[in-house]
Structures are given as C-alpha cells and as structure tokens.
Amino acid sequence: MTIKNLLVLVVLMSVLGVSVSQNLDLNFYKNRCPDAEAIVRRITDQYVSHQPSLAAALLRLHFHDCFVRGCDGSVLLKSPNKDAERDALPSLSLRGYQVVDAAKTALEKKCPGVVSCADVLALVARDAVLAINGPGWAVPLGRRDGRISRKSEVSLPSPFAGIAALKQNFSDKGLTSKDLVVLSAGHTIGISNCGLINRRIYNFTGKGDFDTSMKPSYVRELKRRCKPTDFTSSIEMDPGNVKTFDSNYFNVVAQRKGLFSSDSALLDDPETKSYIDTQVATAGSSFNEDFSESMVNLGFVEILTGNKGEIRKRCSSVNKDSSV
C-alpha cells in the first residue's frame, strides 16, 4: 500500500469512527508528539531495509504480544529470573526487540514519557510490512504498557492445532474466523525450521508415517530438505515467495502445501476454506484490505487505556516507581 493510499485509509477510518473506538485515537499523539509515527517509520525502515526478514519477525512479535495479556507491550519486558513472556518456549525464537528499543529511544529524546511501548510495537509491525511493499493500515493509538509479564501465562495458537482449537483461540480474544484465516496469511513471509515439522513428515501417528493432509510430493520435498535428525535448518513457509507479502499463501494452502498443521487445518472449516478458495480464484483481490482490517482488530485485543498500566521509559523494564 502506498503512502497516499494509507492516508486515504486514515481519513476513511476517522469518518467511520474507528479513531475513537475503545479509547484509542488515530490522532492520539497529535499534540504531545506529532512526529511519533514518522520517527517510528524512519527507524523501522532503517532496520528492515538492511534485514528484510525482520518484517516477519516484527509482525510475529506484535501477534505474540497481543495474544498474551493483550496488546500491552508485556512481551518486551525482561526478567532477571528468566520468567517473563519472552522466556517461554514459544517466545525463544522471537526477534526484532532491537527495532522497538531503537524507536522508543528516539521517541524518548523527542517526546519523553509520552509514547507507550505497546503503541511503538503496533506501529513497528505496520511499518515493517510496509517496508517490504506489503499493505498498510491506520493504527489507532493510545495503548498503555502493562506492568506484568509471566512466562507461565504464555498460551498461543499452536502450529500443531486443529481448526476447532484455532477458532476458539481467536474467539477468546474477540477475533473472528475471518481474522484467523486472514492473519494466518502473515506466514507468506514466514520462515520456520525443520524441528517444527519433523513429526509431521516422519512420524505423524507414531507409525513412521506422514500427515496425509499434506500433498505427498511436498512431503518428499520437505524430507529432502529436512533429514530425520535435522531440527535446525530453516524452511520457507511460502516456498519461493517468502520475500514478497502477497496472497500466495492461500495458493500454497489450497495445494495442500501448508507447512504447519494449523495451516492445513484452515481447509477443514467451511468459512475459512471458502475464504481461501475466494482468494485463490480472484488472485487475492481483497487480501490487502482484509489483512489491514484484521491487523486493526488484533491491535484492540485486551488493551490498557486511561489510567491503567503506564508509559514505560524503557520497553524492557517497568518504571522504577511501578508496583508489579
């Protein structure tokens, strides 16, 4: 999405009233830090232009944040006891913290104590996708930062989950089945590793078999790339297209080449399968718009506003005067 189109979206959302939903506002920092979005975009562009794979990492970081205690920046907190969200097993492969920290540092120099880390992360995720020529979306702002981050609370949609569990995961966060299938397409720029698919291609039911929901020729291809004892080699989630943010993910899933069980599971539900079929038939005609809408929906999950939470000075630690 071009900057011009993004501005049009901002105006449209304002007209529709999205700007004031749940105490968030597209112009939240207009008076106190008018350059906030420009600063975050500049920093994000600097990092992603040198390392494009950060786009997927930052999108995932925002997703992890919102699915644990809501979009409150709690995933960014460090713990000396290694018991924060970022220390949980599903979070150990998260990357991109340095981008958020750099943006926050720049903001603190310009507008100290104004912009929350939760908002920085929401903006960085959007700007990272824009930096690789993906869609953009207007980000309502005004989130506040949480003071609690617990490893024990990390419960995320699993890559091994079936469709019923995935739909429940999203419903629990106020998100729809459409949000599920649309946001899953963020895998179009995703990179995983052989360890996460080892069982699926070598011993799915404990009998030395593979998951029959996968195309057999694709399983053979994966076995060539991932030997039985290889748990670390990288593998693209949208083969041959991982550098481009587009709707090709749906073609991959429709061809039974979804890398994770959770990708293939999208074909097991009438609503999510219908969406995939439509995107395949129309070459992703509505995908950019749908992805933008679902990312806005994600950004509203269990947010803190008003007097709740705080505005952290540093994203990795709560303010010294906070009681945790």
TrEMBL record:
Residues 23-319 form the Plant heme peroxidase family profile domain. Its EC number is 1.11.1.7. Binds 1 heme b (iron(II)-protoporphyrin IX) group per subunit. Binds 2 calcium ions per subunit. The record marks 60 as: Transition state stabilizer. Its main location: secreted. One of its GO terms (molecular function) is metal ion binding. Ca(2+) 2 binds at residues 188, 238, 246. It is an enzyme of class 1 (oxidoreductase). It is found in: Secreted. Substrate binds at residue 157. PANTHER family: PEROXIDASE 25-RELATED. Disulfide bonds join 33-111, 66-71, 117-315, 194-226. Removal of H(2)O(2), oxidation of toxic reductants, biosynthesis and degradation of lignin, suberization, auxin catabolism, response to environmental stresses such as wounding, pathogen attack and oxidative stress. These functions might be dependent on each isozyme/isoform in each plant tissue. Belongs to the peroxidase family. Classical plant (class III) peroxidase subfamily. Belongs to the peroxidase family. Ascorbate peroxidase subfamily. It comes from Brassica carinata. Ca(2+) 1 binds at residues 65, 68, 70, 72, 74, 85. Heme b binds at residue 187. Keywords: Calcium, Disulfide bond, Glycoprotein, Heme, Hydrogen peroxide, Iron, Metal-binding, Oxidoreductase, Peroxidase, Secreted, Signal. Residues 1-21 form the signal peptide. GO terms for cellular component: extracellular region. The active site is at residue 64. Its cofactor is heme b; Ca(2+). This is Peroxidase. One of its GO terms (biological process) is response to oxidative stress.
